[in-house]
Structures are given as C-alpha cells and as structure tokens.
UniProtKB/TrEMBL annotation:
Known catalytic reactions: L-proline + NADP(+) = (S)-1-pyrroline-5-carboxylate + NADPH + 2 H(+); L-proline + NAD(+) = (S)-1-pyrroline-5-carboxylate + NADH + 2 H(+)
UniProt organism field: Marinibacterium profundimaris
Sequence ranges assigned to domain Pyrroline-5-carboxylate reductase dimerisation in this UniProt record: 159-262
Ranges of residues in domain Pyrroline-5-carboxylate reductase catalytic N-terminal: 7-96
Gene: proC
Entry protein name: Pyrroline-5-carboxylate reductase
Class of this enzyme: oxidoreductase
Keyword tags: Amino-acid biosynthesis, Cytoplasm, NADP, Oxidoreductase, Proline biosynthesis
GO molecular function, a single term: pyrroline-5-carboxylate reductase activity
Amino acid sequence: MGPDRAIGIVGGTGMLGRAIADALLDRQVVSARQLWVANRSGAEGAFDDHPGVNMTTSHQAVADACDVILLVVPPASAASIAMDASERLVISVMAGVSIAQLGTFTCARRIIRAMSSPAAREGLAYSPWCASDDVTAGDRKSAVAIFEACGLTDEVESEAHIECFTAMTGPVPGFVAFYAKAMVDYAETQGIAPDIANRAVRQLFLGAGTLMSTGTMTPAEHVTQMINYAGTTAAGLQEMDRSSITKDIAKGLDAAVARTRSIG
C-alpha cells in the first residue's frame, strides 16, 4: 500500500498505538495527511512532530475516511469501538478479542486479528496475524506492509496461534525480562554490584538477541552448540536440562494463554 491510502488508528496515542503510528509515518507507509487517529481527547498536539495528522474523537469519522482501520484500544474497551466499517479492512491488535467479536463491534467482514508490541517504533516488533474468510489478497498485502514497517511478520493459521503469540510476545517482554532478572539476582548474591549486574545482563541479552535474529541457527541449535563445546556454559545448560525449568516455563505460558482467551 502507498502513502496516499488512508489509514486510521483507533487508540493511536496509547503506547502501542503511537508506536505503530510512528513506524508507519517514519517508514512512509502512510503520509501524515492520510493518517487518522482517534482518541478520547482528540488532542491536536499529540502529533506535533508529524504535522498534518488528522485527530478526532469519533470512531465513525475514522471509518468513513480510511481504507484500513487499526484497532489499538485496551481489550476492556473493545465494545466502545462501535462503528460501521462494513466496507473497510479492520486490523486489530487487541489481546483476547476474537474475529467474531470484532465483526460485532465494527460491522466489518474483512478482519485481521494480530499481535504486536511497542518495539514497532524501532522496527523490532514481531507481529503475527490471521485473517477472516473475506480478507482479500490485496488486504493481505496491506497487512504485510503495515507490519513490516513495525518489524517482522507472519500470517498464522488460526486465532489459537495468535493467542499463543499474545502470551509469548505481548507488549512487554516479560518472560525474557524474568529470566534476565534471575541472572541479575544471582550476580548480586555473588557480591556483584547491582548496577554492574544490570549493565552486564542487559548487554548479554542485547548481544544474544541480535545474534539469534541475524544468524541462521535456531535457538535449539545455539543450545546444542554450547553443550557440544563442553565449556562452562555447557555445565549450566546440562544442569538446567535435568531440572523442571522447561516444564515450569510451559506452565507459565499456559497460564498466560488462558488469560488471553478469557480477557476478551
């Protein structure tokens, strides 16, 4: 899709909505004059760094003006969307809100349910999505253009897969941060100063994430390589493999997925 096709974002001044808006503007997926943002205040100053963005408090105004509408409001507020977007492509990144519910709230038939994160601003989000039966090939191209501006994207087979990704890759990298916190805590028990422990672990995760993102090996292959190297890391990995940590992580993910499926 080109910068002259109108895109609307309902909830475009929240953390995630603004991140997606900035990604679309900065990477020229949409021009400022063709971007519509709806929020409760309609504050015109919200996009001073992108003059020309259309601000409104009316969801219907967005539906009337735009070809593609992104829904980025809290799931608890989903019912308040209330618009007639029957002839539009509607893309939702609201956790736990089903395609069927989205059709009820928007009157749309062409619906894409997705997940993303505020890392979209830096082009680092992962945004999986699935489509309703009425979504066209052109709609799919539009979704890919939007989400590639935010980072990486894939179409997945079902809403159940979106729910899994919602739990794993939600707006805050909670599971990764939890593991990092455990490493920082361990370092502190060994007498390492908290600021140094935090600095070291932050850099470790930055380096590891970059290597896994840009390299060809899978995470499993990285683990196997380290074990085969038979060094200090191998000793730690082998001990973890003998523990219940993998099952415990799965339990945590199961709980997050269950919450995703009930939140809508």
